[in-house]
Amino acid sequence: MSARDRILGRIRAAAAPGDRQAAVAAWMAAPGGGPRPHQAMSHGPQRLTQFMQKLDAAAATVGRVSALAELPKALAHELRKRRLPARIRFGSDAIFAGLDWGTIGTSRGPGRIEEPATLSRAEFGLAETGTLVLASGPDNPVTLTFLGETHFVLLREADLCGGFEDFWTAWRERGLDPRTLNMVTGPSRSADVGQVLQLGAHGPVALHVFLLS
C-alpha cells in the first residue's frame, strides 16, 4: 500500500458518516455546547439593553411598542420624522394583515426598488451583535430587506437571544425551514471607494427596529 493510499484511508476512516453524525448529535445534546464569549451570555433586562446598544453602534435606530395595535401609530410617527411618504410595503405576514393602518397607505408583495419604506418581521434578534434574523418567504419576502430606502423591522422582545448559540437552538426548536436566512446588522454600508463609509451602498440607507414587548 502506497503512502497516498494510507493517508486517504485514514481520512476515510476519520470521516465515516455514521461516526460524524453521532459526534454532531452528541455535541448538540451536550449542555453549553462549548465555550461562549461573555457578551453572548446576557439575560433579562441586561440582554435588552445590550441589544439596543449594539443597534445604536451599528447605526440602526430602535423604538418600543407595548402592543401590536400600536405599531401603525409608531410607524406613522417615524415616517413623518424621516419626511417619508405615508405608505409602507410588507408581505403576507398575518401579524400585519389585521392591523388598522389608518392614514398609512399599504401595499403587499415582494420589495420594489421604488419603495421609500418597507416593513418586515424578524424571527429572532441577537443581543451579542445587534443582529436581526429574517426568514425568507411570502410572509416576509427577502427583497423587502434589500430594496427600498428605509427598512422597518418588527421584533418581539421574547424572540431576543443572547448569542449565536441560543439562536441556533431556538431556530431548531421553532422548526423553521426557509429557502434563505438573512442576518442583518444595521443599514447597508460600504467603504470600498476611497475608504469613505457610505450607508445604503447595497441596500437600505436606514434601519429602524420596533421592539414589541
Describe the 3D structure.
- The protein is built from seven helices and twelve strands.
- The mean pLDDT is 86.
- Strands 1-12-7-4 form a four-stranded parallel β-sheet, with helices on both faces. The chain has a four-stranded mixed β-sheet with strand order 8-5-6-9. The protein has a two-stranded parallel sheet with strand order 2-3.
- By secondary structure, the protein is α/β, with parallel strands linked by helices.
- The relative contact order is 0.17.
What value does the average pLDDT take?
86
Largest sheet: 4 strands, parallel
In terms of DSSP E residues, the strand content is 15-25%
pLDDT under 50 segments (min length 5)? none
Class based on secondary structure composition and strand pairing? alpha/beta
Distance between the termini: 66 Å
Please compute the radius of gyration using only Cα atoms: 21 Å
Q: Would you report the number of β strands? A: 12
Number of helices: 7
Strand order of the largest sheet: 1-12-7-4
Q: State the helical fraction.
A: 25-40%
What's the helix-strand series? Answer: HHHEHEHEEEEHEEHEEEE
C-alpha geometry: elongated
